[in-house]
Specification:
By secondary structure, the chain is α/β, with parallel strands linked by helices. It has helices at about 5-20, 35, 60-75, 90-95, 110-125, 140-150, 230-240, 245-250; strands at about 25-30, 45, 50-55, 80-85, 105-110, 130-135, 155-160, 180-185, 200-210, 215-220. The protein has 8 helices and 10 strands. The termini are far apart. This is Protein ImuA.
């Protein structure tokens, strides 16, 4: 077995070779302990690609996934580049999720290949807080290029995987993304005064690098882009004898 001195010397050598590879990478936490504690990096790495898919091909699930990304972008720094294939984004809805219109730059791509190229260019620019795109198909090589373009910067990459055909899982194809999420609309709780309460989403982290998947129920983004744990789950996580925050969101 190697001595501690030899191990320490080896680590110093690796630091000299790899430069800043040992520095803690910047992350964007959700601000919810029951979620952030289960993410390998304590949040979403800013220098990485993160994928999102709707829980179904219907409009309600598609809107939930879109607003999930908008909320993340709203909490990032600086201007946002959103690359689309069709002009179906509803600006007032994005604003309600915290993403102000003056922060968003829109680009329209002819096909998935051009969309991915525009995203890569935006990530390499280093002057954007987030780059968002929506595709039906993106191969492993394309996602690896996006991940490499994001590394070393502070521009988070968000790629929405749309449903390409009935019954197919948008997250079924291999990807270099650091995290892969599935977001679906969930029933909200009626208010005592009448009417519907804050919208809720069923959020699943399908895959994360160096971490385990998990499922949770969250209240939709508010006008600052922040999600919330439903009141009942929040109270349960703090009650005596209950599970720790690490497991309460499962």
């Amino acid at each position: 077995m190697s001595s501690p001195a030899i191990i320490a010397e080896l680590r110093e050598t690796l630091r000299a070779i790899e430069g800043d590879g040992y520095r803690r990478r910047e992350t964007l936490p959700f601000g919810i302990a029951q979620v952030d504690s289960r993410l390998a990096d304590g949040g979403l790495r800013l220098d990485g690609l993160h994928e999102v898919a709707a829980g179904g091909a219907d409009m309600s699930n598609d809107a939930a996934a879109t607003l999930f990304m908008a909320g993340i972008a709203a909490r990032a720094w600086g201007p946002i580049l959103w690359v689309v294939r069709r002009r179906d984004l509803f600006a007032p809805g994005l604003y309600q999720a915290g993403l102000s219109p003056e922060r968003v730059l829109y680009a329209e791509a002819r096909d998935d290949a051009e969309l991915l190229a525009l995203m890569e260019e935006g990530l390499r620019h280093r002057g954007l807080g987030a780059v968002i795109g929506e595709v039906k198909r993106a191969g492993m090589a394309a996602t690896r290029r996006l991940q490499l373009a994001a590394e070393g910067g502070r521009t988070i990459a968000l790629l929405m995987r749309r449903h390409a055909r009935e019954g197919a899982d948008p997250l079924g194809a291999p990807s270099a993304a650091l995290t892969r999420w599935r977001v679906a609309a969930a029933p909200s709780v009626p208010l005592r005064s009448g009417g519907m309460g804050r919208p809720r989403w069923s959020v699943s982290l399908v895959r994360q690098r160096s971490g385990e998947p998990f499922d949770t129920l969250l209240e939709a983004c508010d006008d600052t882009g922040r999600l919330a744990l439903p009141a009942a789950l929040g109270d349960r996580s703090r009650a005596p004898g209950r599970a720790s925050p690490r497991t309460a969101a499962a």
